[in-house]
Design a protein that fits this description.
Radius of gyration: 25 Å
Strand order of the largest sheet: 13-12-9-10-11-8-14
CATH architecture of the largest domain: 3-Layer(bba) Sandwich
Helix content: 25-40%
Number of helices: 12
Oligomer: single chain
Length: about 375
């Protein structure tokens, strides 16, 4: 029973875009490292139904997957290919998908459940799966009405809004591979460092590095109204050599203007802004700047501090933290501990991952566990 007028509408809107379906990691222990919430609960399921089993299942359904590359690229497929393959399989099995069915409320019966819709007859079933996601909160309201605890929703996988002269009007620059972390602040995991593409946006910073970092502290950030400090290392490959490298330029390129020689592959405009923030002008040469100026430049390159003032949506993949509390669910089958033969899947569950196929794999794994549980009971 689908509220929209097409099933799998999110995939359909992606057209021919490749979507991440399964992370490259193979073991349960490695996979749960990508879950800010739910890692303990998903360890068992990913032992019994590992990622390789999901990959094999997708291939059996006719989904053409591009292979993963460990540490860099998850298993991917064309969104249209996924829709076509799964719709074909549904037709083969005779599974009926009713669209345009807007559920209003549900209740229990001695023999199962009853669901009332905006139009049409109510549905009476022995077993029921709630997989409504979090964009429409009706499913969570239904779960709550049946006595389930629901962890409040908050954004995860975000962009951050901020105003800073170092990045003003630099949107459209090529992404920079950078490291980002939270500055020291109570409640934030200061030890968490995320490396990946960092994009300068019209209203702040985004890209995989920011999205993954914010996922690890989503509830805390929401509680702070997304006002928090973060630190950017624009040159992570240079490690501790950056100070020596810049000093060497002062010796061997003394007459060259600092602003005219971007280092570490940084976009020229970004480099110029970081140099300007280090109290240098366009006329300053490598041989003419002071040690203090070079030290300030090193700090701006490796420990640039920014103050976030809000958040936005990471459009390629946006998720919410929160949902039906994990201790309300038997993760062997995804069955409710309160209501027999009621199951929860995907974003309905307070369990979510970082970028790279984790959220898709969660949904696919939940579906497998539910199918096996329903079939055996």
């Amino acid at each position: 029973m689908e509220r929209g007028y097409q099933s799998m509408s999110w995939l359909r809107t992606r057209a021919e875009i490749a979507v991440d379906l399964v992370p490259a990691e193979e073991t349960g222990e490695a996979l749960v490292q990508g879950l800010p919430r739910g890692s303990q609960e998903m360890l068992g399921p990913w032992h019994h139904w590992p990622a390789a089993s999901t990959v094999a299942w997708l291939k059996q359904q006719g989904v053409r997957l591009s292979p993963a590359e460990k540490g860099s690229k998850p298993w991917q497929a064309s969104s249209r290919d996924v829709v076509t393959a799964l719709e074909g399989r549904l037709a083969e099995l005779g599974v009926v998908v009713e669209t345009g069915r807007h559920a209003l409320e549900m209740g229990t019966r001695p023999d199962g459940y009853q669901v009332w819709f905006e139009e049409g007859e109510p549905l009476v079933v022995e077993a029921l799966v709630l997989a409504t996601g979090t964009a429409q909160k009706k499913g969570l309201a239904m779960a709550e009405a049946l006595g389930h605890a629901v962890t409040p929703l908050c954004p995860s996988l975000m962009t951050v809004k901020l105003r800073d002269a170092r990045i003003r009007n630099l949107q459209g620059q090529p992404p920079v591979e950078a490291e980002v972390r939270f500055a020291d602040k109570p409640g934030l995991p200061a030890e968490r460092v995320e490396r990946g593409d960092l994009e300068i946006l019209g209203n702040g910073l985004g890209g995989p590095a920011i999205a993954n970092l914010t996922a690890w502290a989503a509830p805390t950030l929401a509680g702070a109204k997304h006002k928090f400090p973060l630190v950017v290392n624009w040159v992570p490959d240079w490690g501790g050599q950056i100070a020596r490298e810049l000093s060497q330029r002062a010796v061997h390129h003394a007459k060259a203007a600092v602003m005219d020689e971007p280092q570490a592959g940084l976009p020229p405009k970004l480099w110029a802004r970081l140099v300007e923030a280090s109290k240098m002008t366009r006329q300053d040469t490598w041989g003419g700047v002071s040690k203090r100026q070079l030290s300030t430049l090193v700090g701006n390159l490796t420990q640039g501090r920014f103050q976030a003032s809000g958040h936005g949506m990471h459009k390629p993949e946006f998720a919410y933290a929160g949902g039906v509390a994990r201790d309300e669910i038997d993760f062997r089958t995804m069955e409710s501990r309160r209501c027999p033969r009621l199951y929860f899947a995907g974003e309905m569950v307070d369990c979510d991952g970082v970028l790279g196929g984790y959220n898709a794999l969660l949904a696919l794994t939940h579906a497998q566990l539910i199918a096996a549980g329903v079939a055996t009971t």
